[in-house]
């Protein structure tokens, strides 16, 4: 009977946490972690009429989810999708829709057998892959092969396929930035591999330095790990950094020298603000440098930019310098989940191939410019307000949807955090939530240099809300410093300038 | 330098198949495997005007994808979704839509902050989880907790989460049927675990016998494996079997005795035909038997039934007898991909909560009955035609969207298959494709008893096409037997009756 008994759950007959896959237990994803759980409890409290909170609603700045905070969906795309969704409307037409909407919807309906109700080929419908290839060719000035493009449920699903393909076991590592959007570390953990962190340079607008990549590579190798790929998030998440052309050149040469697969997370490519270095794709850099031996994957998404279509879950990745038989393994992985959702696939087509008729085009461009300008203004407003606070410094907002301010946590608060079993920035973020209703993500959820503390916040609250959000944040911060000030000396008499 | 060189790709600087995760290489998913690849090449050939094929189009019977073969989408649901997709339509209304469509769309729009363009909570929007819970309570007569319901991109994503949660390493196995829809074996392989097969009883309408479950359990344990869960697909895929209440009772008791998590794939619960045993959920059976120590997961999907909304990728799973802390681990897994697509989530709500106004309700029920009746007629037509062929026997069509006929492959064809490096049923299926354009899946892709050969076909070609599909299949089969007949004796003088 011994053999038969081995399947018994730990300590009795109900499945317990100790019975589960330890890799799942180990995986962390702070963007939807402990602070958000607490926020959801508070939301439930408020909904139940419990008046114990000093605010009337929770504002989720933990995640780049623009439409949840009032950003409008893109009009042309949604009109087309509404017709695709109900083929009756294609036949009858909708009086308020333009000819271009109708024609575009008909083009998709004709090209996609079974419409949005049928499984597509596992890579996604060909018409959209053709649109993506045309977009990439136009953007970069180099050919793009629709057969090397895979449509996915957001960019995340593509990252999952690639980490699954590359990580062979505990010895394998992927070089990834610290701080880092924790999708990569979560998927590496689930894939029984690990992340080898390279540190972004906070003093240089969170840039990537080749010396640091080499250090991280050597450290991983010394620890017995085999680096398999390099993740670059450009523009950065959580940092908002837009990398210079010089940094990008160095990255490609580094991958070439070290035989690494270059995983280019470029989902914020439309979100570059002001005088920041303009976006250049790593595919273009690779081709410019004739580095045709560097396997490169570029991820994009309809969730960010100015489309902000998070809930539709549309994305793609493009492979370059991948052998056909390696691509076939990715196609097999994609096929195991059958296909990505076809509405999201068409959403990708509508993002990369915007309207062209004069009327639709000018409305589209006006909407795009207004949304991007507004994001830029809000980014600057939040960054300025943060930099005006004692003990806070924040790199200028260059791109993406986030700021990642550095906070000096007073020693008394560090002690209080330890007593609560929390990292100091998690303690700070939890206090912020409970004082203001603002949800941010502690820097410790992304990784950061030892002894530094940060939090990530989006600047997505609507233009009407953003001033009050900033005021609440500032009020909280000053109160926090006061509460945890060392009684022996005045609390932060002047903004710190030596971080 | 030795350590640094270890990351070089095998035999040179370009990533090769030998460099990839061996678990990915090992995973198989025949439903979109070799035969489909060949079919896609042939489709490209035909599109290019190459007239070398004796048919003018490929008919994909390899996958349950009803709308790709002409089934219409559900009207009420699509009308609601078109309004949700474009909030303008909610304001202006659409003259041809009923009041119930408008009200339903407004209900979702009000309840879902940010609409379909915003990430939802990782488990899915609460309003739909409430609708699912109400549906389950109504179906089973037992309470259902919306907090134990997770909305997913089709059922497949939920199966992925559960296998990832349960499989801890190479020693762990999940008991799964043979033949089996190969999602389970693919995910077990990717999860570094394995499938312990139990054989379905072809002579008893492909039923599940507890003796056989015990045999498979003991065999797995003897081989050093730890069984963690039991997969039941009811109605069956690829077999179409609808299990009896007696079989279901035995399954629940078996899981209780052996401390197994019961994974109930019930995506075909609406697809039960004629005099087959009616569908009873394993949740109801578990509650009836007061087996409240059996952790149970039930998967459902909008892709099957009579909705057939494959491309929308909507599904859910319900957990029963799961501890809160174990559920939290699943929530974390779900959060790593942020959320399932929100259109698919609302699609689930529209499936489980159909219209109730007299006019909409009667149209909905007429459409449902017509679609299910038509499926049943086509199933019988295909089964009868198969059973009339020499060397073919096919269990009656009880449920799901598939038939899984048994074929006697002549010895000369077995030899020819071996010479081509193929399993006999793969050889047969490839020949069928190249002769008729019909795409089916070889039984060897699902698992089958040694020495038996099958293929899986859907009966989804439209009522207009199905007769010609059956005629082509029959013609091919007779020609195949003739081609590979033993010259010494007449080819299958009479239908075999002793299988």
From TrEMBL, chains A, B:
The Swiss-Prot or TrEMBL record annotates one GO molecular function as: L-alanine:2-oxoglutarate aminotransferase activity
The record's annotation in PANTHER family points to:
ALANINE AMINOTRANSFERASE, ALANINE TRANSAMINASE
Keyword Electron transport on entry: no
State the family named in the UniProt similarity comment for this chain.
Belongs to the class-I pyridoxal-phosphate-dependent aminotransferase family. Alanine aminotransferase subfamily.
Q: Which UniProt keywords apply?
A: Aminotransferase, Pyridoxal phosphate, Transferase
Domain of life from the UniProt record: Eukaryota
| The protein's required cofactors | pyridoxal 5'-phosphate
Q: How does it assemble?
A: Homodimer.
| Membrane-spanning ranges | none
Descriptive protein name: Aminotransferase class I/classII large domain-containing protein
Organism, by scientific name, is Chrysophaeum taylorii
